[in-house]
Amino acid sequence: MRFASFAGLVLPFALGEKLVIPAVEEAVSLQLAEFDRYYVDAANKTLDSPGTLSFNDARGIEQRTTGSSYWYETIAHQGISAFNDDPTTYKVYRNVKDYGAKGDGKTDDTIAIQSAIGDGNRCAPGTCASTSTTNAVVYFPAGTYLVSSSIVSYYATHLVGNPNSLPILKATADFSGFGVIDGAQYQPGGSLPWIATNIFWRQIKNFIIDTTAIPATNAATGIHWPTSQATSLQNIVFQLSSDAGTQHQGLFIEDGSGGFMNDLVFYGGLYGAVFGNQQFTVRNLTFYDAVTAISQIWNWGWTFQGISINNCTVGLDMATRDASNKEVVGSATFFDSSFTDTKIAFNVSRNSDSSPRTGGSLAIENVSLKNVGTAVQYGPTQAALLAGTTASSTIDSWVSGQVYHPNGPNKVAGAQTPFTRPTSLLSNGKYYQRSKPSYADLPSSSFSSVRDGGAKGDGKTDDTAALQIVITAAAALGKVVYFDAGTYIVTSTLFIPAGSKIVGEAYPAIMSSGSFFNDVNSPKPVVQVGNSGDSGVVEWSDTVVSTRGAQAGAILIQWNLASPSGSPSGLWDVHTRIGGTIGSGLTSGHTSMHITTSANNVYLENVWLWNADHDVDDAQLRQITVYSGRGLLVESKVGNIWLVGTSVEHHVRYQYQFRNTQNIYAGQIQTETPYYQPNPSARSPYPLISASDPNFDVSCPKATAAPNCAEAWGLAVQASKNVLVYGAGLYSFFSNYNTSCSAAGASTLCQQGMVLYDAASTTNFRIYGLNTVGAYGMIYRDTVRLATYDYNINVFPSSIISFDNAA
Ligand SMILES: *[C@@H]1O[C@H](CO)[C@@H](O)[C@H](O)[C@H]1NC(C)=O
Ligand SMILES: *[C@@H]1O[C@H](CO)[C@@H](O)[C@H](O)[C@H]1NC(C)=O
Ligand SMILES: *[C@@H]1O[C@H](CO)[C@@H](O)[C@H](O)[C@H]1NC(C)=O
Ligand SMILES: *[C@@H]1O[C@H](CO)[C@@H](O)[C@H](O)[C@H]1NC(C)=O
Ligand SMILES: *[C@@H]1O[C@H](CO)[C@@H](O)[C@H](O)[C@H]1NC(C)=O
Ligand SMILES: CC(=O)N[C@H]1CO[C@H](CO)[C@@H](O)[C@@H]1O
Q: Fewer CB within 10 Å, N side or C side of the chain?
């Protein structure tokens, strides 16, 4: 194992395992008889010579009996799947050791791990279309698990390792399969299971994946991960061969509609990561010693934030064309990142004659270079479009593609003025980032289980009172609320006070029900975070908020809480879902999420607000018509809202709206218009709220406007300041359920406009990498169409690499 770059951190290792102590740079074999697990504090540098150590002379080695245990491993496992065919016997939680896995670095654990995944009537690849009733967590205690063929993951499966001592999945020398973890195993006939754009609600976190025993020149893949919304990879280390001729790759994604991933470290490989997917947000990825760190094989638009590339030949290779010499990569937005000791930072094949016209667009902002041969290389001739440096330099902003300020298109390849960033959104000059907490240092006694508190989560019982008691008490006692897997019915508002920390197991659902939430003229929050005027911090992760039956007045999440600047509240992997699953009935909603005037300093990461377009529990995945009025409304006066990898889909009037707010960082945002529009149009069935809805009677006068004018805005910005968008995929695929309006070359597009802002009172509104599908006008300033799709044709969407509202 090679951990040299971990210097200064605490290194996990198992009994009898070999590792390199950074201060010594030599392999030592640790023979520790009595104890399971130790940690070496590398910063101590007390291991001054290599050799075989026994416990007694292992200075700087300490036993961490409690420190290496993890609350989720030791807490009572009482999660259920409420709508499973057999909820009394179906197990949500599976510890691989209970299925015979040894994790001793010697035993082949493949079959045991696979039986943990497959236990019960689950949604295996090739056997089912998708499901919401078989969520499972497959937990890996610390250890080294030898695997000889792919661990094949199933639908809605969370593979979770111990974050205090990352389990190692070690491929054997004769490993066979596509991916040490195969997240969507190819089926006979060569197709991916489940339809890649329908793979939702799953995670892999806290692992080391090691392919180094596989000969370098054999193909080897760490994780195969075609995927879509509400999925994540977090805190994974990929150990790949860096020997000459290596054919190893860490991560391989060839399809889907993502998505988010973060905190990944890649060592070695021909490719660290191979990325092909409509859109994605990737944050905090570090690459060492790869030939090509990131190979972008196709996309519509990707957002790369906080990428560190070290000692590679190429950083981001997006010079990908098809057999007819057309660009297949749509666009990339890459910022707050660094390249060190790397020959070519970006390899592109876009030039002024590219086909399609905007194919291969690239935006770079605040990227530092240290000993980089070429910053941007034009692949076909290997000419430098932007020079590198043998010392250090920073690319403030460089774009290639079509630019609007606010008129255009202007064809640009070169430097431009970077976005003006409000300092309140920054930490050390970069946009503030914060990863989902694992609460790794807390014992299980610090958690309050809602089931222990009397909530049933069975999808039938009214759990409002029981949940409220647990949540209120936990905040007072400083405990973390633990939502055991289940579906918790609430019939009135659940209140989350300042100071709350909430974490869910396998996406438990809080599901609203009843007449309390069904008055369209008097909407009520399902989950309300703070009262107006409250201040403090809330952390909330891994939960779904949902509705059952008619809920025309349900605001699924209402955020009122103000948090201190520099110490925002956070939501990670908190999703809303209206319809589309067993148990939701014929449902509706008013607004998926409202960040109100009093709220501020909120960090959202990997949040998908979904009004369902199809039924995931229907074997034929039939489309459904479910109405909810509005997606995400931000009206925070102080602002400081981070939207990292968020997505809002199929709401009637708009997906994202920023109104009377300021200081918004958003990247990448992704939306879809309801499939049924314009039948009916976005004017109905939700009556206009004149104080906060964009008014279609203004933008689409009834007497003169085309039928497809009054359709949901992807993004509306009104009276707001400093709205900075780093990647946007805003799509309208259908008109009255027919996709011919979004097909290449369509004569009538699905809808008229996608982005709206007001000229009078919006300032510093900027977008990198705006991609729209099916919209005739990409951006409207009031009623003026600024950008028309056909000037900006890209691989499938239309694309503007940089937009700003002021010339
Ligand atoms: C980046 O990921 C590493 C783990 O790979 C983590 O320790 C670090 O805190 C993360 N940094 C940020 C800014 O998220
Ligand atoms: C750089 O990467 C190569 C493999 O591509 C490796 O052999 C070499 O040791 C690395 N250099 C450093 C300084 O880590
Ligand atoms: C860069 O892109 C070109 C295609 O335009 C390709 O031939 C070349 O291999 C890529 N990589 C390097 C290191 O030049
Ligand atoms: C860019 O990132 C660097 C750190 O890599 C930071 O020091 C700098 O202030 C950042 N921000 C801007 C706007 O340049
Ligand atoms: C979809 O619309 C196109 C163009 O109007 C039409 O030719 C086609 O028949 C429609 N398809 C269906 C299934 O209605
Ligand atoms: C200087 C330093 O980091 N010392 C640490 C060495 O390791 C011991 C045991 O973990 C710590 O207590 C010291 O602080």
A: C
How many Cβ atoms from other residues are within 10 Å of residue 624's Cβ? 18
Tokens standing for residue 135? 């969520």
For residue 619, is it within any domain? yes
Pair 32, 142 in one domain: no
Cα dist. 396→337, 363, 393, 428, 727 in Å?
11, 11, 9, 15, 17
Instruction: Please choose, from the candidates 404, 309, 274, 400, the residue with its C-alpha nearest in 3D space to the C-alpha of residue 349.
Output: 400
Are the C-beta atoms of 346 and 312 separated by less than 8 Å? no
Distance CA(689)–CA(709), nearest Å, equals 19
Assess whether 102 and 48 both reside in one domain: no
> Facing residues of 787 across strands?
779
Q: CA nearest 350: which of 328, 365, 368?
A: 328
Is any ligand 3 atom within 6 A of the Cβ of residue 319?
yes
CATH code where residue 723 lies: 2.160.20.10
Q: Are residues 482 and 344 part of one domain?
A: no
Amino acid at 37: R
Q: Give the model's pLDDT for residue 806.
A: 86
388 and 448 share one domain: no
| 435 Cβ inside 6 Å of ligand 1 | yes
Asked if 189 and 51 sit in the same domain, the reply is no
Dihedral angle sign, alpha carbons of residues 53, 59, 61, 62: positive
Within this chain, do residues 101 and 42 fall inside the same structural domain, yes or no? no
C-alpha to C-alpha distance for 152 and 191, rounded to whole angstroms: 15
Within 10 angstroms of residue 26's Cβ, the number of other Cβ atoms is: 11
Model confidence over 560-577: pLDDT tens digits?
999 999 999 999 999 999
Nearest to 100 by CA among 40, 135, 145: 145
Kindly give the distance from the C-alpha atom of residue 5 to the centroid of ligand 1, in angstroms, as a whole number.
13
Is residue 591 one of the residues assigned to a domain? yes
Residue finishing a domain among 370, 395, 420: 395
Query: Is there an atom of ligand 6 within 6 Å of 43 CB?
Result: yes
Locate tokens 């291991």: which residue? 47
Judge if the beta carbon of residue 234 lies within 6 A of ligand 1. Answer: no
Ligand 3 centroid from CA 196, angstroms: 29
Q: Which residue has the tokens 């509240």?
A: 569
Cα distance between residue 147 and residue 113, in whole Å? 9
Q: What pLDDT score was predicted for residue 807?
A: 53
**Which residue of 289, 309, 339, 341 sits with most ligand 2 atoms within 8 Å of its CB, as the best mutation to test the pocket?**
289
**Distance separating the N- and C-terminal Cα atoms of the chain:** 54
Which residues share a beta bridge with 104?
A: 144
- Atom number in ligand 2 closest to CA 313: 5
Helix (H/G/I), strand (E/B), else coil: 372: strand
Mutate which of 382, 385, 400 to test ligand 3's pocket (most atoms within 8 Å of Cβ)? 382
Tens of pLDDT, residue by residue over 581-597, are 999 999 999 999 999 99
Rounded distance between C-alpha atoms, residue 332 and residue 307, angstroms: 13
Is residue 412 one of the residues assigned to a domain? Answer: no
Are residues 120 and 47 part of one domain? no
433 found inside a domain:
no
Give residue 17's domain range.
2-55
Contact between 438 and 206 under an 8 Å Cβ cutoff? The reply is yes
Residue 41 pLDDT > 60: no
User: Measured between alpha carbons, how far is residue 687 from residues 276, 590, 683, 694, 696 in Å?
Assistant: 40, 10, 7, 12, 11
Mean pLDDT over the full length of the chain: 92
Tally of domains within the chain: 3
Query: Are 98 and 51 part of one and the same domain?
Result: no
